[in-house]
Specification:
eleven-stranded mixed β-sheet, 654 residues, 37 strands, globular, mainly beta
């Protein structure tokens, strides 16, 4: 398939007899679906549409018997951040004792933001079903990525709070009106994270085939930097202010992992970090149908594509970690490449966690040198290799996930291969020749029937572009085209196959190995003369900067949530992979992001697309706009994040 420039499409409905239908039979008696298309929600026009979450879309369902029905959609909010329940408050940020954190760590000037804090950025959802029939229980697990900003204790200003607070995960009981399909959240409380040292910037997530929640900790702390300064964000959680990890404070190597959460029938939730899956800027972990092979989004700039193959199905505590090498075939239309897989190592959780517990340091794993040192004494550093990768979340020296990377010369110390492979897989992978030029690699999902992996590259820029490699010591990805188009991002597809070998010739024990990678969908710059979306830099009628993605096998549809600085209002799109029609189906308020996607095909005759509205009206996301937007329009937006779902779908069964 040629790469598609994304244009929204409205299915042709003229002449079809399509009555609005109520929910159809549940379970095995639900009519089989032949195809699903969606009608389009227009781009917002006017303040009312720019400041609210809304949809005017319908699902047009063709059943296997030839009948067609139209199902109008609506977005329903289950709860908002800071809503109070009998057992807790949504998004409340707490310490390991479960007490609300009342102030951030002070800045270099002694300023601190005042709490309590509620994280306005809800991200992943897992609607989990326990039991069956009349005894089935529904639970919604939601984790919160970050809080946006809060007033300083002095009252003089506000502080941006990204990466300044430990984060939270909540579990809510959910009830369903079986007639209408409406869901209601009850009895929400925080999941206790004390056993794993707290939760660090959890981003996207997935529901495993064995009914556990898999959440990613994004933008891992830069262990090289936090060897010499306290990791104050997690010190807030542990109650160890001002302490480096060698003084009893938080260690950076505790964070950046996949967090697996199991929910019991009584509503208890147990969280476990999967150290054997490796540490990175984990967007999410996506499990393949063999229940062993897992792919990850590695968010940031200059990151890697990783694959984990567990030794046994349904057990992520032991396995082998691989990193991909892009072997380019064509640089046009977003690129096309073969993938080679570099084996980083094999480990168990029990191998890695003790390294962290005993306080392993970056300098225990690698010896380092600067480019200037190497240039001055090349013989001394002949065993070192240059590495240019995303180094992780910075601290006081360079706050922000976009901190500047630089070339560092590294040498692996004796006996440290396992530590490097699982605690520093990006740096170690770069030493072994894996590709480290991917930019903003975010959501990952898969299509089992067609054996395809889908990967969102939110912004295609910098080292991915031909001639833009700068000081990077390797240049695997050389994409050609207009940089103003490519910066709008796209989605890649990767065919999955068995019988593959790694770069040493050793067999890979999986039938779901990605063998190549090519662009499936690409965004595009704003076309001349497009009047709606006046503040957009990317085409308003095409997907821009895709982030959260989920594939529905029942609908043969890829749902794509935007996180775009190039669309003032971010959109949720439905892309039918058979018809090739991407359709806008939901509009978020200005400054918000679409997160928490999960497709739930059938709960008592109703289908759902879970989805959250993250950081609506956030100052950081609107600061580049004129005062009419970042001040006046922002005041009309409810800035608390919303946890909700698209209602109106019938039971989905192919």
């Amino acid at each position: 398939m040629r790469t598609k420039l994304l244009a929204f499409a409205l299915p042709t409905l003229i002449g079809l007899a399509m009555p609005v239908a109520s929910s159809l039979a549940a379970g095995k008696d639900a009519p089989r679906i032949a195809s699903v298309e969606f009608t389009a929600t227009p781009a917002p026009r006017g303040e009312a549409e720019m400041t609210t979450t809304h949809t005017t879309s319908s699902a047009v369902v063709t059943h296997a018997d030839g009948s067609r029905h139209v199902y109008p959609l609506s977005y329903r909010t289950l709860f908002r951040v800071s809503d109070k329940f009998a057992d807790g408050e949504a998004g409340l940020v707490v310490d390991q004792q479960g007490q609300a954190i009342l102030a951030t760590a002070p800045t270099a000037t002694g300023e601190a933001a005042k709490g309590p804090f509620h994280a306005y950025a809800p991200d992943a959802n897992s609607l989990i079903r326990i039991g069956d029939g009349k005894h089935e229980k529904l639970f919604l697990l939601t984790h919160y990525e970050y809080h946006t900003e809060a007033p300083l204790a002095s009252g003089k200003d506000t502080m941006e709070l990204y990466a300044q607070l430990p984060m939270a995960m909540s579990l809510a009981s959910v009830t369903q009106d079986r007639q209408s399909g409406a869901l209601k959240a009850r009895n929400l409380h925080n999941v206790n994270m004390a056993a794993i040292g707290g939760l660090w910037i959890p981003c996207a997530g997935s529901l495993s085939p064995w009914n556990t929640h898999l959440g990613g900790e994004e933008y891992e702390p830069n262990a090289r930097q936090f060897e010499t300064e306290p990791l104050e964000t997690m010190n807030l959680y542990l109650g160890t202010p001002g302490k480096r990890f060698d003084e009893g404070g938080a260690t950076p190597y505790r964070y950046g992992f996949t967090v697996e959460v199991k929910v019991g029938a009584s509503g208890t939730a147990t969280a476990t970090k999967r150290y054997a899956m490796g540490r990175r800027s984990t967007e999410l972990a996506e499990v393949m149908p063999d229940q062993r092979t897992v792919y990850f989004g590695d968010d940031g700039r200059d990151t890697m594509l990783f694959m984990f193959v567990a030794d046994q199905p349904r057990d992520l505590s032991t396995g082998t970690l691989f990193a991909a090498r892009w072997e380019q075939l064509d640089g046009a239309d977003g690129g096309n490449a073969k993938l080679a897989w570099i084996r980083l190592g094999h480990a168990t959780d029990a191998d890695i966690e003790p390294l962290i517990a005993r306080g392993i340091r970056f300098s225990d794993i690698f010896a380092t040198a600067t480019p200037a040192e190497v240039a001055a004494a090349p013989e001394k550093y002949q065993d070192y290799r240059p590495v240019f990768v995303y180094e992780g979340q910075a601290g006081k020296r360079a706050p922000g996930s976009g901190a500047k990377q630089e070339t560092v010369w590294l040498k692996l110390k004796p006996g440290m291969a396992t530590a490097a492979a699982f605690l520093e897989p990006r740096r170690y992978g770069a030493l072994l020749g894996a590709t480290s030029e991917f930019t903003k690699m975010e959501g990952v999902t898969h299509n089992a029937a067609d054996r395809q992996l889908y990967v969102a590259m939110s912004y295609i820029e910098a080292g991915m572009l031909d001639g833009q490699n700068g000081e990077r010591p390797q240049d695997h990805i050389k994409l050609k085209g207009d940089a103003k188009d490519l910066v709008c991002g796209g989605i890649y597809q990767a065919p999955l196959a068995g019988g593959q070998r790694d770069t040493t010739g050793q067999a890979i024990a999986s039938d779901w190995v990605a063998t190549g990678m090519r662009a499936l969908l690409l965004g595009a710059k704003k076309p001349f003369g497009q009047r709606h979306g006046a503040y957009d830099k990317c085409d308003t009628d095409r997907i821009a900067n895709p982030d959260n993605i989920k594939f529905s096998p029942e609908m043969r549809t890829l749902f794509v949530g935007e996180d775009s600085g190039n669309h003032l209002n971010n959109f949720l799109w439905a892309f039918n992979i058979d018809s090739g029609n991407p359709v806008r189906i939901l509009v978020a308020p200005a400054g918000a992001e679409h997160t928490g996607l999960q497709v739930v095909p059938n709960v008592n005759g109703h289908g759902y697309v879970m989805g959250n509205i993250q950081h609506p009206g956030a100052a950081t996301d609107l600061k580049a706009y004129p005062d009419s937007i970042k001040l006046d329009l922002r005041r009309k937006i409810d800035q608390r994040g919303a946890i909700g779902y698209l209602q109106g779908l019938p039971a989905l069964r192919r």
